[in-house]
# Entry
Amino acid sequence: MNLLIHGGTIVTMRGNEIIRDGAIAIQDETIIDVGKAGQMLGKYASGYEKINAKGKVVIPGLINTHQHAAMSLLRGYADDLPLQEWLEKWIWPIEGLMTAKDIYVGSLLTAVESIMGGTTTVNTMYHYKPMENEAKAFAEAGIRGVVGHVCFSWRRDEDRRALEDLAKNWHNKAGGLIRVSVDPHAPYTVDPGYMKELYALRDEFNKKYGSERAPIIWHIHVAETFNEAEKIKKAFNVDVKGGIMEYLDSLSVLNEHVIAAHCVALTDKDMAIMKARGVKVSHNPISNLKLASGISPIPNMLERDITVSLGTDSPCSNNTADMFEVMKVAALLHKGVSGNPTVMSAQQVLKMATLDGARALCWENDIGSIEVGKKADLAIINFEKPHLCPLHNEFSHLVYAAKSADVETVIINGKIVMENRRLTTLNVEKVMKMVEKAKNRLLEKLQAQC
Ligand SMILES: [Zn+2]
# Structure
């Protein structure tokens, strides 16, 4: 299908470019022209379905670089607890009861919620099951995603089988919508030997299923809290002398295909290593605040020119998949902490949620900005709202004033997946019913165990 979006303001994310009364021409899944509506309406008069975007702002779809999509089933299940207690006493026991079907249903909900909030790409780490899984849910919803399988020292054989199936069946599949990753959970749950093994496995899979343009990446939690060295010592009797990134570097597992979530407790040396190795960051300010994990030194990393992207983290540590909230909190948090209101401009924060998100997933050749040759992943936002009036600066409104509910139409890979807030790929009411049922089944199973 060919589309022409015309009459709106286009925030391309190519530098600070803004095209008022602009137009975007899309052929199949690709952007083929970007310019002024006046000229393009004539040029693409026939053979193009038209979307009138007058009064609206078009942005590249938001990119959420750290999720555990299936965990939407546990939204609001356990709150107001410290990370370790939250994981060990609450989350892991109920997660152990989740079936492949539950994982699929939870991921459908996250896909729906993401699309409705203008997010077009999600990087998710969870347990992969061959029959029903996050990749299947994302493909059905029509959302772009990097889907991983999370690995732990205690289940190497199972991990190996899951990763092989995931890479073989899903990398660069569903019309290029789905890519995959190898996901060691964290340095305190994956021992040094297994960490190296997983790094080598990513290389092996890349040779088989990946390419330079579409690599299989490595997604890991790093330095989420300040006691990670103690946890590594307790789990594996390994002494970590410097920072956690320094420790990972000593294992030779860092390169430009690594995306590290959180990065709260970093040393200066850690950051120098990240810059040298090209490690990318997913900053999850809302999750870090909710779990009181600490505050990541983001301005410091940006000064060093490290790629920093944004993520929500799971729907039970956030508790939504709303990237507009994440953008606003990210912008405000570092101003408050540094005492410097000039730290992280609105434009920079929007870049973290779009182009830098694409870079963090090694997908910047295809997504992250509105440019000829890139895939058409777009969110059209209705700016004719009291809280977006008057309009002085689009970047300011997008980060400080816009809400996910202002997103009206979403296009992913050239396909309209939401039109005037109605999803075209899934029945939202049906998905919510499936989720309630899955939640009830899980609670019954948990009670039967007690
Ligand atoms: Zn996480």
